[in-house]
Amino acid sequence: MMDRRRSTLQPSSDMNATSRSAIPVPATVRKPNPSRMSVAGSSFNPPPPSSNPRQSMMRSQNMNPLLQSASKTNYGRTPLNNSTRRGSMWPGAANMPPPPSSQTMKDTRPLREKSFQITMKQDISQYLRSVHYDIGPATLNNIQGKEYRAIVEFLILQLDPYHPFDPASRMEDEFIPALRALRYPFVNSIDVKSLAAPASMHCWPAFLGVMHWLVECCKAIQTYEGSGDPTLQIAENIPDEFEDPMDHQALAFEYYEQAYALWMNMVDDFVEPKQSLEDRYARKNGQAHLELEETTAQLEQGVRELEKLKAAADPLAKLQNENATLKQDCEKFLKILKQYESRKKKLMDQITFEKAELITKGNQLEQLKSEQSRLAEIVKTQNLTPEEVIKMNTDHETLTQNLRDLEQKIAETNRHVMTLEVNVTNRAAAAEEAIDSYTNLLTQLELFPPLAPPLEDVDLTLDLNTASSNPHNLLSGADIRRVIKPALSAVAEAKRSARANVESERIKLDNELDQVTLECENIEEEIVEVEKKVVALNDQADDLREVAQQEAVVANAEANRLEKELANARTAALGKGTIVRSRLQTLQFNYREQVEKVARLKDETVRAILKNTHEIAIFKDEVSRCLSDLRLFAEGE
């Protein structure tokens, strides 16, 4: 951590230091020369001999410590490993400009208060012990100059490990420049003459304040280094996902550092630093790629759903059709519900009637039992003779036998009645099922009234009333033989006719479809023939195009030849300009003579035409007169 930290001392006083690069840029092309030239400025003095293959060929005049020549042993060198101590950026006391008077500040700390001094001593002692510096408990109470110098140098080296302390120099010569390099705000209030006895009463508060300020700076640096702040630019602390510009700069600096080390070792191919940097950014972009893939998958799914919705039929029309169907079903259900309600009412009436009959029969049974009891009491109270008793017993046995026979017959009759009731119930259930099936068929065939003309007055519905005592009222509705069956026959005949018409129409459409298919096949054959002709024409066109191109080449060659001849002729004409001008004057003179001659001949021709025209007009008048005389003569004859 300390090796990576930059020095906090002031930079060099070179005015051109800010305009130069701090780190040499490594070359990307291997040079044939095994040695490297320094990127610093040159001088006419040759460098001292050295065995380093990277030494500078010229001595640098640049005062920037980051651009010092590599030939110097302990100043401005880039360490090849972390164990090498590099030189400090502090330029020394000789080159340090004196501070302006405007920087003089008054120390506002209560340095002369005993409590504040005790607090500062405790802070200093605790920090020095925390960094394993051997300090006694009473060292700060009566400190010597040597001890004070050791503590101050230790604290300054904690802040800048490469500060160039000279053990042979005096403390007075290095103390003030070091504090100025560290930008101690109250450096002007320190008297360096008292460093020999720093524990004296008048100067000890200031020296104690210096140590406390250095300790606070060291603590601040420790806190900063342990905070994990991105400005530390530690590549190991960078998370996998990062967006901070400082993290990018840290990775870039690590790459430059590794590349520069390879470059200093005569290696121009930075494969490992590049691969490490690419792997690091690949890890960073991994999550982004995953999120991108998920987003792309969601987008594709949304696009597919959108296309599916666009390709699907209009849901409103589908819902309207379903609504119409449901309304029709509702009407049919209401009609069937009315039928079942009427049937329920009839069954309830029948159940009420049966309950009343059951109560009546029960009352009659109770009356018969009471009558039997009364008669038994009467028989007991009567005084009868044995013959009468025998006769009565015989009659009783006869009547009992007759009663048993009648009971058997009644039982048989009841069984027969029960059988008939079961049969009637089964038949009624079968009839109800048949009526229900018939009603469902009417519903499916849409034959509920009103029917289509001419059957609008016919009602095909039937209703079964099993509770009716009159057989004629068991089935209510129109007459099956006279009304319903003929109506159904008429409907079936109409449906058969419609089906026959539909079948005829289908056959007709199939025939037309076959004809259209045949025509399509013929058209396809014609298209194939036309395509063959087009291919042949394209071949001919290609041949003609090739011939035209050849002719164009020949024509271009001929045109080039003619242009050359024209250029030669133009050159010859320019050489014979005088002859041509004289010839031109002669031709112009002849041209004027010819123009005058043509004008004269033109005038003569016009006069001759006018004369001939006049003579023709006179001849025409004479011929007209002769013809008129001839007509008059012919009419007179």
UniProtKB/TrEMBL annotation:
Cellular-component GO terms for this entry: Ndc80 complex; nucleus
Oligomeric form and interacting partners: Component of the NDC80 complex.
Chain positions covered by the region annotation Disordered: 1-107
Subcellular locations according to the entry: Chromosome, Centromere, Kinetochore; Nucleus
Superkingdom classification of source: Eukaryota
Any one biological process term the GO annotation gives: cell division
Known function: Acts as a component of the essential kinetochore-associated NDC80 complex, which is required for chromosome segregation and spindle checkpoint activity.
Kinetochore protein Ndc80 CH domain sequence ranges: 101-223
Biased composition (Low complexity): 52-61
Skewed-composition ranges (Polar residues): 8-21, 62-86
Name assigned to this protein: Kinetochore protein NDC80
PANTHER family to which the protein is assigned, alphabetical: KINETOCHORE PROTEIN NDC80, KINETOCHORE PROTEIN NDC80 HOMOLOG
Organism lineage: Eukaryota, Fungi, Dikarya, Basidiomycota, Agaricomycotina
Family label: Belongs to the NDC80/HEC1 family.
Pfam families recorded: Ndc80_HEC (PF03801)
InterPro entries attached to this UniProt entry: Kinetochore_Ndc80, Ndc80_CH, Ndc80_sf
Alphabetical keyword list: Cell cycle, Cell division, Centromere, Chromosome, Coiled coil, Kinetochore, Mitosis, Nucleus
Coiled-coil annotated spans: 289-357, 389-423, 499-604
